[in-house]
């Protein structure tokens, strides 16, 4: 829809589907690698953020949180995360599989 306004976590941008979309804003913990790298984004970009939010809802922890924004962004770019054994021991395998299929660095 031409001229649509995208809003995520209080941040907005005008979207033109005829143009490649890149964004350079967001909350570091929830950004996908393509946003951090200022690469083209797609609907899959939101799946990463949904995975991070789900991880946080299940555990109360953030999979990429660092001591500062720079460390957090580097953690996102590395794409390395894990399920803390003790924290996730009561979480179902299905829930962990759901998160694992959302927080995917290379979405191809």
UniProtKB/TrEMBL annotation:
UniProtKB keywords: ATP-binding, Kinase, Nucleotide-binding, Serine/threonine-protein kinase, Transferase
Domain Protein kinase: 1-108
PROSITE patterns assigned to the protein according to its UniProt record, in alphabetical order: PROTEIN_KINASE_DOM (PS50011)
GO MF annotations in UniProt: kinase activity
Pfam families in alphabetical order: Pkinase
InterPro entries named among the record's database cross-references: Kinase-like_dom_sf, Prot_kinase_dom
Family assignment from sequence similarity: Belongs to the protein kinase superfamily. CAMK Ser/Thr protein kinase family.
Name of the featured protein: Myosin light chain kinase 2, skeletal/cardiac muscle
């Amino acid at each position: 829809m031409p001229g649509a306004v995208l809003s995520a976590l209080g941040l907005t941008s005008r979207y033109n589907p005829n143009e490649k979309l890149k964004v350079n804003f967001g909350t570091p913990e929830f950004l996908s690698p393509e946003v951090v790298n200022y690469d083209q984004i797609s609907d899959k970009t939101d799946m990463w953020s949904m995975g991070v939010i789900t991880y946080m809802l299940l555990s109360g922890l953030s999979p990429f949180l660092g001591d500062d924004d720079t460390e957090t962004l580097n953690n996102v770019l590395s794409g390395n995360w894990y399920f803390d054994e003790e924290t996730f021991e009561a979480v179902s395998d299905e829930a962990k599989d759901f998160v694992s299929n959302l927080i995917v660095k290379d979405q191809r």
